[in-house]
Amino acid sequence: MKITHICEADSGGGAMLAAAKLHKAMQKLGIDSKVLVRIKMGNDPSFLNIRENLDPLDWIDYKLRRFRNKRLKRKYRPRPMEQVGPFSTGMGSLGNALSRNLPESDIFALHWSSDLIDLLPLMKTIGKRPAFWRMADMNLMTGGCHYSMGCDHFQQACGDCPVLQNPAPDDLSQYALERKSKAFADTDPKHFHPVAPSRWLKKQADRSSLLKRFDTIHIPTGVNTDDYRPIPRSNARQRLGLENSEKILLFAAEDVNDLRKGFDLLLDSLRRLPKSLHVTPVAMGKAHSRLEGIRYLGKLDGAEALAVAYSAADAFVLPTRADNLPNVALEAMACGLPVLSFDVGGMPDCVFDGETGFLAPPEDTLMLAKNIETVLTNEALRKEMGEKCRTLMLNQFNENLSVQRYVALCEKMIEEAGR
What SUPFAM superfamilies does this protein's entry cite (predicted)? Predict the structure, then answer.
């Protein structure tokens, strides 16, 4: 089987790391797998930088499309990213060049993209061949937002987008979703499957105007339980310069200041804790500004460094406003950490209230504070939850099981396409 993955970059946020992990897991099974990317930072030859093979006409087309996309965004002006998150129209500037430079494959795997994939030329090129799209968020089914945050416009036709500063019935979100609809108009549902890592995301796809005619497959994200495993806490803390007596609460995000990840909600919860409970909050990820009383680890690279950080903590807190099924939660659980979060998105898929952690109502910082206090003051409960977390990851979320599900989907699609 020859499979070509298409993803924005070979590393970066959780979506790109998930694509790379799936590719590598497929290679371990002997599958001929490669990844086309727009940004390549590593030196792995199985990741192909499409920009290295463009001819002069491709570059001209790229610059014209990039100019058009910038002009559209200037006209409609998405609100600041720190307030509403990214806005991606699915009209990647390299879209035509990508479609003209695709390698021969039995199946295509599409992943997160901001400026690489343009669905209109891509689906015209591969629409009759098997393909799936692993959705990292809601962007495939919307006119630009990555999480609708309560907006239901994606269920009809978008337009009047709250993410734009100049919303209108025929604004950029409406145009982008209509364009995606044209891209999928001639796609046979047996040749294309959206893949949802969480049950919540599958539900959104089934409700969306764009994807409801396709059979969205639920395949949970897998975690490498050999790389992400409990390390003796005293050893982990010694490596990070943390005291054994501290009660450590770990928060992690690609960008600590991302409003969606809810660091501000965590700070509010910390203020609600009893002063007698001496908690050491530790934040992992990029931070543009640093607050007194927070221990910042910065961005950690590599499973070993991450496993040390998870193992050093007593509990993992994910006060997210909206999320699919984030890698950090699964990695933390594989390292034996109970997770404290809100009942949003895909979190109920792995956080079973009272068993592998606690879920508070969305943005209920008082209840989150109570859950933090319960876990940090009850060592026996914390240990029991941590063991259940590890068992859940081994039995239901391990990487081998996940890749086997993807391979089975690929084999089924290839077989059906050949009929």
Answer: UDP-Glycosyltransferase/glycogen phosphorylase
